[in-house]
Amino acid sequence: MQSPFYPIGTPGVPWGEAEIAAWLARQRRRRSYADEVLTVVDRLRDRFDVVQYGQLDYAPDAYPLFALRSRGWRDDRPAALVTGGVHGYETSGVHGALRFADLHAADYAGRLDLMIVPCVSPWGYERIHRWNPRALDPNRSFRPGSPAPESAALMALVAPFATRVRVHIDLHETTDSDESEFRPALAARDGRPFTPGGIPDGFYLVDDTESPRPEFQAAVIRAVAEVTHIAPADAHGEIIGSPVVAPGVIRYALRSLGLCAGITDAPYRTTTEVYPDSPRATPEQCNAAQAAAVRAALDYALEH
Fold first, then answer.
1. CA atoms within 13 A on the CB side of 268
2. What are the CA-CA distances from residue 184 to residues 7, 238, 241 (Å)?
3. CA-to-CA distance for 291 and 255, rounded, in angstroms?
4. Predicted pLDDT at 197
5. What order do you get walking across the sheet with 113-117 strand by strand?
6. Which residues form a coiled coil (predicted)?
7. DSSP labels for the chain?
8. Which CATH number does 17-303 carry?
9. Which of 90, 126, 150, 273 is catalytic?
């Protein structure tokens, strides 16, 4: 039997339009994309080409979508893609990407063309939510004909240079609210039982089941371990229900699941997962861990 505590829907019955509308009515803006993200993007305009690659129109709100592109972009140079905020509530993904852009991107000038997309899902950022207003998870929607405009816009941005992307790192978090809100909501939305799980304490990575790169993942883990702690396996040898294949590393089928990290054929791909609710990590440390992961990923790709 589905856990009865989620306040929307009928246990065992997937949501329809009425339930989605009831869920949407509960959402409230809790922070400002313009004040916290776009102001930082504006400060970086003297160092990057700022590209508006779309706009989300969720009446009464509209959200311009921006990417930071290396100056002197060249089609004969390998590219690196850095994405954050695919799940808008995962704060260090957004601010870790911006931190990397501000403090470290210049180190790669002339060696890699950078496309940094700091906040793929600004509606979710403002409401500290995983989904978009249609109760869709953008990070399960990266596929042709995507129903999620956030995902479709990013894929359209990347398509012209996808074949030369050498490394893609997608910045995420695993939070306590995954267990208290988002997983129960997902079960309710889909009419499935909710099975309680656990939240790993620490940083981990998601490699690609279909094209694993264990040495690459290990290099990123080593770099991040100098900034914050790495999540251990649980009593079953797993992290969030997936076998741990190396310290701090699990694997998903990135493309078949519609995950952001699967949108190119880059040989080096990973998804970071920071744990911001740990008593052993501060927000600053989480942002620094994301930036360290980006640097390690790019360095490895350049060296190999």
1. 26
2. 10, 21, 16
3. 24
4. 87
5. 48-58, 61-70, 113-117, 79-84, 165-173, 268-274, 204-208, 249-252
6. none
7. ---TTSSSS-TTS---HHHHHHHHHT----S-HIIIIIHHHHHTTTTEEEEEEEEEEETTEEEEEEEEEETT--TTS-EEEEEE-SSTT-HHHHHHHHHHHHHTGGGGTTT-EEEEE--S-HHHHHHT-SS-TTS--GGG--STT-S-HHHHHHHHHHGGGGGGEEEEEEEEE--HHIIIIIHHHHHHHHT---------SSBEEEEETTS--HHHHHHHHHHHTTTSPBPPP-TTSEETTEE--BTTEEEE-TTTTT-GGGSS--SEEEEEEE-TT-TT--HHHHHHHHHHHHHHHHHHHHH-
8. 3.40.630.10
9. 273
The residue behind tokens 């790709």 is 301
User: Mean pLDDT score of the chain, rounded to an integer?
Assistant: 96
Which tokens belong to 192?
A: 């499935």
Return the structure tokens found at 158: 């990347």
Determine the Cα–Cα distance for residues 202 and 275; give it in Å rounded to an integer. Answer: 5
Question: In the predicted model, is pLDDT for residue 278 greater than 70?
Answer: yes
**Chain centroid to CA 197: how far?**
21
| Structural contact between residues 281 and 179, judged by C-beta atoms closer than 8 angstroms | no
Closest CA to 300 of 220, 232, 238: 220
* Residues 6 or more apart in contact with residue 290 via CB below 8 angstroms: 84, 92, 93, 95, 96, 97, 99, 100, 171, 272, 274
Rg over CA atoms, the chain: 19
Is residue 273 part of the annotated active site? The answer reads: yes
**Token pair recorded at residue 130:** 């995983």
Paired tokens of 120: 């793929």
pTM score above 0.85:
yes
